[in-house]
Design goal:
With 464 residues, this protein is α/β, with parallel strands linked by helices. The chain has 16 helices and 13 strands. Strand 10, helix 15 and strand 11 form a beta-alpha-beta unit. It is globular and about 60 Å long. It binds beta-D-fucopyranose (FCB). Beta-D-fucopyranose binds at residues 32, 35, 180-181, 184, 238, 311, 369, 416, 423-424, 432. Beta-D-fucopyranose (FCB) binds at residues 32, 35, 180-181, 184, 238, 311, 369, 416, 423-424, 432.
């Protein structure tokens, strides 16, 4: 038995033989800038809304901030080596806008650009594909001071940033994601107040959602104007199967509304060039006129992409309630949940893929995030046992194998996340990494799930 087998258990033990990766498929890991980089004042980086939010007392668990995080800005070389040692084939990271344009406007900060250029080059030298996200939630605070995503002008600023970054990095990065999870940015950030900038105004959140979508369209256009041939662009949405907790009309209606709020509000404009009518009526009734939408916006939002990014974690079970957003609240989960309380359901991933294909698009799909937080044991003798995360991973890989067999066109799978990191409003309390990070010493220890993933990739490649 090899060390990997002994520590991680064999793939067979975890439930299945690896699926046969189709040509061009890559197994990856994902992170985001504010969650791992730290060095928030280094090399001319400007302040972001997450710096401001995390430093506001009461916003993040235990008063945690991303000031140091995983210190990846200084340790990136060894993190690339770590990925290489795990046989990872693709790395999805995000670019911090405030490193490139500290105030979100004008002058480009060379040192910020160079950091990502070196990172991408070094990945490529090791045969790891770089996949870059332009916006993973860290808006320059200076733009927020002027209204942030509530202001239409921010869309044009973002397109300019996209053009600059695409122009500079297009020779080393082929795959580009414009926006990550605009539902979280718009609604959790501006209506519910759980994420930066921490506002609680639905009219603002609706305008923000439109401007984020429009920014995807404009950035796509900007990237296309500068990327060399072979460059590809897409958006990453977080999608949830939404299930009525009880099968009656009131619950089914609650599920339709929640689905409209989290899924269709983004899927419909991107792939059908229209906001869903039922949700437009509901918002106009409950919030007010949707006054941000101008002629031509929906055509821009629906501009053709090269791939579609799907983040999948869990299904939602819902029930009608006077308390929840839009009179819907989460019902109790059925079966096992992760440390976040999210229901574990690999089948939900298959359902999402089938729905996207039937109702929206036949574009190639990248699973841009999928993963789980659990309270792990501390490293002992260089080992972190995380059987629940390993099982989560094995279950979702099996689901992808089944989806592929059913004809789905999945081209990437990115585990969230390479490292334990700053999990937004939960700070460092929720660990999503397949690699354990000791936040006192910054020591990295691959967990059993990381060794399982490596073994899975090796076996998948041997079979193909
Ligand atoms: C997603 C985010 C990602 C991470 C995971 C757990 O919503 O895109 O940054 O926090 O959840």
């Amino acid at each position: 038995m090899t060390a990997v087998d002994a520590r991680a258990g064999t793939t067979a033990e975890a439930g299945a033989e690896p699926f046969a990766p189709p040509p061009g498929f890559r197994f990856g890991v994902a992170t985001a800038a504010y969650q791992i980089e730290g060095s928030t004042l280094a090399d001319g980086r400007g302040e972001s809304i997450w710096d401001r939010f995390a430093h506001t007392p009461g916003k993040v668990a235990d008063g945690d901030t991303g000031d140091v995080a995983c210190d990846h800005y200084r340790r990136w070389r060894s993190d690339v080596e770590l990925m290489d040692s795990l046989h990872v084939e693709s790395y999805r990271f995000s670019i911090a806008w405030p490193r490139i344009q500290p105030t979100g406007v004008g002058t480009v900060n060379r040192r910020g650009l160079d950091f990502y250029k070196r990172l991408a080059e070094s990945l490529r030298e090791r045969g790891i594909e770089p996949v870059a996200t332009l916006y993973h939630w860290d808006l320059p605070q200076a733009l927020q001071n002027g209204g942030g995503w509530d202001r239409r002008d921010t869309v044009e600023r973002f397109a300019e940033y996209a053009r600059v970054v695409g122009d500079e990095l297009g020779d080393v990065v082929a795959s580009w994601i414009t926006q990550n999870e605009p539902w979280c940015t718009a609604f959790l950030g501006n209506a519910i107040g759980r994420k930066a900038p921490g506002l609680t105004d639905w009219a603002t959140a609706l305008r923000v959602s439109h401007h984020l979508l429009l920014s995807h369209g404009r950035a796509t256009e900007a990237l296309r104007s500068v990327l060399p041939g072979g460059g590809e662009v897409g958006i990453a949405l977080n999608l949830f199967p939404v299930l009525p907790a009880v099968d009656d009309e009131a619950h089914r209606e609650a599920a339709r509304v929640r689905d409209g709020y989290v899924n269709r509000w983004f899927l419909d404009p991107v792939f059908k060039g229209a906001y869903p009518e039922d949700m437009v009526e509901r918002y106009e009734r409950e919030v007010g006129p949707l006054n941000a939408v101008r002629d031509g916006d929906l055509e821009a939002i629906a501009a053709p992409c090269d791939f579609f990014g799907v983040n999948y974690y869990n299904p939602m079970r819902v029930e009608p309630s006077p308390d929840g957003p839009l009179h819907v609240r989460d019902a109790e989960s059925v079966g096992p949940v992760t440390g976040m309380g999210w229901e574990i359901d690999p089948d939900g991933l298959k359902q999402i893929l089938a729905r996207v294909r039937e109702e929206y698009t036949s574009l190639p799909i990248m699973i841009t995030e999928n993963g789980s937080a659990f309270e792990d044991a501390e490293p002992a003798d260089g080992v972190v046992e995380d059987p629940q995360r390993r099982a989560y991973l094995a279950g979702h890989l099996a689901a992808i194998g089944e989806a592929l067999a059913d004809g789905a066109d999945v081209t990437r799978y990115f585990v969230w996340s390479l490292l334990d990191n700053f999990e937004w409003e939960d700070g460092y309390a929720q660990r999503f990494g397949i690699v354990h990070v000791d936040f006192e010493t910054q020591a990295r220890t691959p967990k059993a799930s990381a060794l399982f993933y490596k073994d899975y990739i090796d076996r998948a490649r041997k079979g193909s």
